[in-house]
Amino acid sequence: MTIFMYNHRRTSILSLITFLVLLNACTNPLLKPTAEEVLLVKKYAQSLGSDCTDFRIVSGEFKVVISDMQALTGDSLKRKNIQQGLPVDTPPSLKIWSADIVDYPTQKMLDISGVEPQPDTVFSDSEYANRILHWNLDSHLNSGDVTLSRHFKYLTFDYRPMVDSKAEHQNWHIIPKDISDKYTRSERFLEQDDALVDTVFTLLENIPDPVSQAEAIYQWIRQSMSYVYPPQERGVRNALQTLEGDCGQYTALYITMARIAGIPARQQSGFNFVEGNTGAHVWSEIYLPLKGWVPVDATREDGFLHLDNKRIIASIGLNIPLAGSPDWASFENSEVEDGKTDFMQMYTLASSGISASFSSSRTILRSVKIK
């Protein structure tokens, strides 16, 4: 969970800290690309092929400001610990993780100009290999204000893979076993309950090939779900019961239904990142034996096998392990439980015994389109 979505996901901990969200538009747009940028895009376009069009080069900044941070003591600390469901002698603590901005098939990093302050550790999570930055701020709890910032520049593009359904079906047996095992399993928030299994089997009974099945699931969700934000509760069980929710609920339902059908599926998390819209967003990917991971965004009308160039990707997967997670952290008091966070976008935190205000911003510094 990211800081700016804290109150939407963990409504029981609203009283812990104060949040302010700042969503900034492009502050210094340059409408025309430089000659060097045009040459760079031509190079990438030749290597990526005709599935990729409408290139964008974007510079941006992510920032979180922690203000008036104080470690509580005495009776104030005891009351806070009781409020958070912690042992009364739990010491004040603040730990923050963030998924690094790295290369993905539809995202090429051109520059990472700085992370301030430097994280205490950088690691690759053991489940999905997301590169994760970790700050242990326990020694800064009485410093008043702390700012974490990152600057980056990346290339993105509209991705619409041309898929041969018959060829994918004929080669389905070559999907690596580790991918099939990991991404068709039932897991927390993606539980494969009997009611959903029956729904999938009924829906796909007369649909012969996996790509057509994946599209049928997409169309069923598009027709059955209503967009409601925020949802009452997170996870596929609530999504199926209510048939409503936000992008996270659409995605949980799509992934779980695809997995039941034997189609490897996972979540991709990030943001819309264009002028006027830098909001958090999640969507799905399915694995095809010839094309590999391809996108499916069930909240979008044109989202089957299509990812537009308006995204920035932060992480993949659900239930992501976080090194350095304290034993006391749970979804009742933090954004981590059993050493895992459900998914990662901007920042994920575990806190105890502190008073602080948080503000976060996502700023587009420059954006150019190159066709």
Q: Per DSSP, what share of the residues sits in E-state strands of 2 or more residues?
A: 25-35%
Radius of gyration: 21 Å
Structural class by helix and strand composition: alpha+beta
Counting DSSP H or I runs of 4 or more residues, the number of helices is: 9
Widest sheet, order of strands: 1-17-2-7-4
How are helices and strands ordered from N to C? HEHEHEEEEEHHHHEHEHEEEEEEEE
* Rounded average pLDDT: 90
Largest sheet: 5 strands, mixed
Q: Considering DSSP H and I runs of 4 or more, what fraction of the residues is helical?
A: 10-25%
Domain count, please report it.
Answer: 2
Identify low-pLDDT runs.
Answer: 1-19
**Total beta strand runs:** 17
- Distance between termini? 35 Å
The coarse silhouette is globular
How would you characterize this protein structure?
By secondary structure, the chain is an alpha+beta fold. It has two domains: 3-158 and 352-370, no CATH class; 162-306, C8orf32 fold. The protein contains nine helices and 17 strands. The protein has helices spanning 6-9, 35-48, 74-83, 165-170, 177-183, 194-204, 210-224, 236-242, 247-260, and strands at 18-24, 52-71, 93-99, 107-116, 121-124, 131-136, 144-159, 226-227, 244-245, 265-272, 280-288, 292-296, 311-316, 320-321, 340-341, 348-352, 354-370. The strands form five sheets. It has a five-stranded mixed sheet. It is globular. The model is unreliable at 1-19 (pLDDT under 50).
